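Researcher: Here's a chain I'd like modeled. Treat it as a single chain, no partners, no ligands.
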Amino acid sequence: MADIDARPEDAQNTDDRKTRLGRLSFRAWRRGFREADMVLGPFTDQVAPTLNDDELTELETLLDEEDQYLYAWIIEREPTPPEFDGLMIARIRAFMREHVAAEVAKGIG
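Model: Modeled as a single isolated chain. Structure tokens:
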């Protein structure tokens, strides 16, 4: 017997979005590369809920990349390949600069 979801479509979409954001947060915080975790985790927790579906897809695509490459692109140690050099990586870089500056101002670092 097929499961029938009788909730209104908006409730279904909200649940789907919460699940998606939860998965993104998990992936961002558990990269296996501490420096990447410390940028991508807070970014995903604070910024991802404000992103639209296309932007979330762009973030998911970035999170599919290997840590050492992604982090090198974020800190601009390596050139970002054209297919990833867009608004999302720019937003992550800007967030990192602000986030790190705020933590340093608190006396961390």
